[in-house]
Amino acid sequence: MNKAFTKEEDGSTPERLPDLPISEHPNHVTPRGLAQLRERQSVLEAEVARLRNNREFLDDLYPLAVAERDLRYIEARLSSAILVTPPDSASQVSFGTTVTVEDENGKRARYTIVGEDEAAPENGLIAAFSPLARALMEAVIGDIVEWPKPAGTVELEILKIEV
User: Fold this and answer.
1) What are phi and psi of 22, to 5 degrees?
2) Domain check: are 111 and 158 in the same one?
3) Residue 53, exposed/middle/buried by CB under 10 A (0-12, 13-18, 19+)?
4) Number of structural domains the chain divides into
5) pTM of the model
6) Residue 15 located in a structural domain
7) Residues 113-127 pLDDT 10s
8) Among 65, 100, 127, 130, which one has the highest count of C-beta atoms within 10 angstroms of its own C-beta?
């Protein structure tokens, strides 16, 4: 057993791992993002209970310490969550909307502006405080926005805004 993650006295109780860092940004969430956090909480609660009930069979208490730390993080994110309901209609880009853009090379892309915990850039879900989302916010169809990237600024034309 790795003593780095157990109490020295008896080796039966995992030490509390340091908490995961919490973002300094307001914790805005979409209804979907809130549901995902709640689902993650349920999964982690079940995992912690399972690991605690089977501790006598564990040679390594590290998985329990990780699950407890992750549960603390999700609970903190839920307690600070600010639900932002997407608008009924979208005349401009805002939190929770999906926007279709085209760059100067004619390449189109779709992005949905979401909360930090829901963000998955590879799936077109971008955090509201990201440089791309900040460039898109409040734009309307036909606008050209400038997206600052390390390799240079990219111009994007707003083609469509959806809720």
Assistant:
1) -105, 135
2) yes
3) exposed
4) 2
5) 0.83
6) no
7) 999 999 999 999 999
8) 127
